[in-house]
Amino acid sequence: MSRPTIALSKFVGTVSLGLLTGLSYTLSTTTLPPLLLLPTATPAHSTFRHLRALSSRHQILLSTISASSLLLAYILSPPRGRHPYLLWSTLAIGCGFGKEIVGLWQGKKGQDGFGGMEEWDFGGDKEGETDSDGEELNGEVLREGMDAWRWRQLLRTGVWGLGWMMSVVGIWGDGS
């Protein structure tokens, strides 16, 4: 295949992996902390559910674009140009979704059809707040679920950031 196609594929994969890293970082450090400050569990719960659905959709899209572009660049490269950083960066993308991939292997599907995206059991609390489905919400359990999700996003940020750095250094070394 032509050299510009391979270079473009590496570039698209690296940029989308950088966007994926930035999305995860922004979710964990900027977007989620204000949700923890909402006065009641009901708006926090509905906003958190919406945030999780949208972020999951965008993360899956960006990771698919990034992984397929980097793998395509590896496959289309001549044997001399098949650098391992393309595979290592793709592996980092997959490792970011480790829990979800294990969930798919076990046959579990979450609310978005992706394995391992569990629904939090918010239980009832003494105030009797309910969400849109009529279920009672527990603010403490909601906070614990949001904190766990935040730490998972921070872990993904680290893994995807490592893959992005490998990809940037690899492209720089290639001279693409």
Share of residues in strands:
under 5%
Mean of residue pLDDT values: 82
Give the overall shape. elongated
Separate helix tally: 5
Uncertain residue segments? 112-128
In whole angstroms, how far apart are the ends?
A: 15 Å
Query: Which bin fits the share of residues in helices?
Result: over 70%
Q: What is Rg? A: 19 Å
Classify the secondary structure makeup into a structural class.
mainly alpha
The counted number of beta strands is 0
Secondary-structure element pattern, one letter each: HHHHH
Q: How many strands, what sense, and barrel or not for the largest sheet?
A: none
Care to describe what's here?
Helix 1 runs antiparallel to helix 2, helix 1 (3-35) runs antiparallel to helix 5 and helix 2 (41-76) runs antiparallel to helix 3 (84-96). The protein is elongated, with a radius of gyration of 19 Å. The protein has helices spanning 3-35, 41-76, 84-96, 98-105, 139-174. It is an all-alpha fold and 176 residues long.
